[in-house]
From TrEMBL:
Residues the record lists as binding Mg(2+): 7, 381
PANTHER family in the cross-refs: ACETATE KINASE, ACETATE KINASE-RELATED
Record field: catalytic activity: acetate + ATP = acetyl phosphate + ADP
Keywords attached to this entry: ATP-binding, Cytoplasm, Kinase, Magnesium, Metal-binding, Nucleotide-binding, Transferase
Protein name: Acetate kinase
Binding site for ATP: 14, 205-209, 279-281, 327-331
NCBIfam families tied to this protein: ackA
Active site annotation, chain numbering: 147
Name of the gene this protein is made from: ackA
Free-text function comment from the UniProt entry: Catalyzes the formation of acetyl phosphate from acetate and ATP. Can also catalyze the reverse reaction.
Biological source species: Winogradskyella pelagia
Cofactor(s) annotated in UniProt: Mg(2+); Mn(2+)
Amino acid sequence: MKVLVLNTGSSSVKYQLFKMPEELVLCSGTIERIGDTEARIRHNSSKCSVDKPLTIPTHKFALKYIVGLLLDKDKGEVQSIEEIEAVGHRVVHGGHTFKSTVEITSEVKSKIKELFTLAPLHNPSNLEGINVAESIFKKAKQAAIFDTSFHQTIPLKAYKYAIPNEFLDNHHIRLFGFHGTSHKYVSQKAIDYLDNKKAKIISIHLGNGCSISAIRNGESKDHSLGFSPFNGLIMGTRSGDIDHTLIFYLVNTLNYELDEVKSILQSKSGMLGLTGFNDLRDIIAEAKRGNKKCKLALEMNAYRIKKYIGSYVAAMNGLDCIIFTAGIGENSKLIREMVCSEMDIFGIELDEEKNNKSKSGILEINKNNSKVKILVIPTNEELEIARQTFDLFK
Ligand code: AMP
C-alpha cells in the first residue's frame, strides 16, 4: 500500500510517500512559505531532487504541485493518483474526543474544527490540508493522527487542573499533551535499544515547539504541554510556563487588549522575545560572539528543562534513560551539555567526547558508568504516521 503522509502547517506542507508495510520512503519534501513571494519547494526521491523558489499562493496549489511531481512521467513515483490508497494527516489537537487514530469523516472534521480555539496555530491548517487532500485524492482513505493520542494514558492526578471540578466535568478542561507521535516513536526506539519494556524514560522534544514527557512501561505518564501547546518549556516564540496572573496584569493594569496579550505570549515570546532571534543556531552564534541576552536565554532554556527532568524523576521514582530529539535535541551539542551538566544527583552523566560525535541512528552520549543512559534519537513523525495509517486501513 502506498501511503502519503501530510503535515500541513500554516505556511508549509511537509510530505512523504511510503510503501507499506516495507516502510520504504519513495519520496519526501517540503513546501515552505506558502503565500509568500519567497515560497520554496524541496523534493527528493531516488529519481530526482528539486530545490527551487516558486510562486505558491495557497495550500491547494502546493498540494497540486506535489501531485504533479509524484505523477511526472519520467521522475514520478506513481503512474496514477489512485495508486495512493491512503493519506495520513498530522492533526495537533484531538481534545478529549480522539483517543486514537481515526478515519476522517465529516463528523471528524467538525470535531477538529471545534478544537480550533485550543490549537489556533495548528488545527486550522491541519484541516485545510485534509480538505485539499480530499479534493485531490478522491479515492484514497484519509486518516487523522493526533499529537494528543499518545498522552491518553496520563493519569487523572496529572492531567486534572486544580480548578473547580465543573471545568473538567462539563468542559473537558485538562492537560492533553502534544508531540505524541514523536514521543511515542523515540520512546519505542529507546525501549528496543535498552531491551527494557518497563524503562522509566524522559523524552525531550526540542524543535520549534518544545515538550518533555515522562514515560513508563511505554506509556505517557506526564507531559509539559497542557490544555494547548503553550505550557512548559521555553520555545521558539512561545513563553512556556508563566504565572497566569500576568495576563490579568497586562490587561487590567497595563491596558493591553486580550488579543495583543495572546499574540505576545504565543508569537513574540520564548527565545524570540528574549533575544530577537527565533532560530537556535543564530542564538548560539550570537552567544559565542558575547551577546549577553543570547547567553542568558540559553541558560534559561536549559534551566527550565532541568527543572522538568527533576520533577519527572520524582514522579516516576527513578530514571533509566533520557532522550534528546527533534531539530535542537538532535543537533545542538551545547543544549544537551547544558541540560545534563550538574545532574549527577540523578545519575545523569554526559560524556563530552561522545556528545560531540555525529551518527545516523541512535547516539549514546552518557559516560560508561552513568546510571542513566542519555540517547540522541532522530524522531520520525512521518514514519509513525504512516505506520498508524497503514494499521488502520490494511
Ligand atoms: P524542528 O521543529 O524539529 O524542525 O526544529 C527546528 C529547530 O531546530 C530550529 O528552530 C533550529 O533552531 C533548530 N536546529 C536545527 N539544527 C540545529 C543545530 N545544528 N543547532 C542548533 N539548533 C538547530
